[in-house]
Amino acid sequence: MFSTLLKAGGDKDGTLMLSEERNKVLTQVGPGTPMGSLMRRYWLPAVLTSELPDPDSGPIRLRLLGEDLVAFRDTEGRVGILEALCPHRRAPLYFGRNEESGLTCIYHGWKFSVDGVCMAMPNVPSTSDFRRRIRNISYPVREAFGIIWVFMGPGSLVPDELPPLDWVNLPEDHRLVSKQLLRCNYAQALEGDFDPSHISFLHGTVSAYRTFDSRLALRGKEFAPEPEDGVLTADFEQMYWNRDPQPEITVMPTAYGLFSTARREAGPTTYYYRFNHFIMPFYAGVPSDVDGASQCNVWVPRDDHSTIVWRVHFDTGGPLDSGVIQHQLTGLDAHVSPDGYARQTAEPQSEFYPLLNRENDYGLSRDVQRATLFAGVEGVWLQDRSVTEGMGAILDRTEERLVSSDAPIVHVRRSLVAAARALQADGTPPPLETDFPYATAISAALYPRTVSAIDVMNDTTLRTSRPVGVGSE
């Protein structure tokens, strides 16, 4: 099924690293940069419908891929995403009047439609009116199921359909969507989703950590219990990754990015597998716990130094379980609680910056760190942010010392940089959204020890292949 299989295994001395030049290609996303051009070939989730409930809500500030924009819903109900400044004297359109099918700049009354067409320039005599030659930068948008998407690439390349992923066209009651602003580059935040060994530490307990040496000494000699009925549960899952901090990693490059698995010791007859999907250019299908909903993280660059992550929990089979929603809204898993955000400022998307952040050490408690939680930080998203955002705005990857468990991260970087360079060099298009897999996130599973990792991955992709008629004409 796959043409290439990569076994985990960085340089033996742990010196595999990214050069300064390649790190710039990976992290710079502004107009005209290789990665910025790559990102602009895809639909980007930009705004929640709830952010623009009606024309009376007015424009909102938006920054994507280093461009400052405004988004507004006109009096006809249409959404426009325009350059933030009026093309006349560069006044901010955020303060504009939303009226009669357009957005009017308060400086001189120039008015623009959702398509950027200049509808009026009342300070110009009719004999000199040249509105037909004036357009503000505007981008195509598509609104569906609670999300407003934008395409910022060449107008001739706008994809006909939104990404054909399993959660994109689900009814709103089938999913829970929230956003967070991170003050760091998208790449280092995204890479955390492809680091399979960190869950045994960052998301683990002190008691489990203190058993690692003895567990590893007995590896292959002493086994954990396994479910008598063969049904994996959340309790068994946590036990397995609390017992085994050294998963065996297998990486399969795909037409759309990467599919990887982390295999841990389980019972005497089974291995425990967790699966990761990387889908170009910023989708992370994180391993789904067997008793929970599926999850996808979308790491959209705001600019080189900040990121908006869309966290999506979903159920393709029906409305999302109320218990899952209630748990997520506590703020202890992937989502920030509704009252867990800082006060909004004039900074674009500042309303999605959590109260617990780098400035207050993410709520770190040294007492908790000594007694119960390995990280001393309570909450999965907070634990992740404390290390990825805590690295600073842009990680200097020339200083890293990578090891075998970092194989998925290495491949994610290579695939992004290679695609960006190819597009810049000769116009080679990156993977198309029509190449995307249907299943974003894949549930963890137990497999017999007699089944190889490659056979497990092939079996998994067959079971989660695109249903007939989904994503096709």
- Average pLDDT, all residues: 91
Q: What is the overall shape?
A: elongated
Q: Please tell me how large the radius of gyration is.
A: 24 Å
- Strand coverage percent: 15-25%
Distance between the termini: 24 Å
Uncertain residue segments: 1-13, 468-473
Count of helical regions: 11
Q: What summary fits the major beta sheet?
A: 9 strands, antiparallel
The count of β-strands is: 20
Could you estimate the helical fraction of the residues in percent? 10-25%
Give me the secondary-structure category: alpha+beta
Structure description:
It is elongated, with a radius of gyration of 24 Å. With about 475 residues, the chain is an alpha+beta fold. The N terminus and C terminus are likely disordered. The chain is built from 11 helices and 20 strands.
Q: Quick gist of this model?
A:
The chain has 473 residues and is α+β, with helices and mostly antiparallel strands. The chain contains eleven helices and 20 strands. The chain is elongated and about 90 Å long.
Layout: helices, strands, pairs:
Blueprint: E1 6-7, H1 20-27, H2 34-39, E2 43-48, E3 60-64, E4 67-73, E5 79-83, E6 97-99, E7 102-104, E8 111-112, E9 118-120, E10 138-139, E11 141-144, E12 147-151, E13 175-182, H3 186-191, H4 206-209, H5 212-217, H6 234-243, E14 248-253, E15 257-265, E16 270-279, E17 283-285, E18 294-303, E19 306-314, H7 322-328, H8 366-371, H9 380-388, H10 407-426, E20 445-448, H11 453-463
Antiparallel strand pairs: 1-14, 2-12, 3-4, 4-5, 5-10, 6-7, 7-8, 8-9, 11-12, 13-19, 14-15, 15-16, 16-17, 16-20, 17-18, 18-19
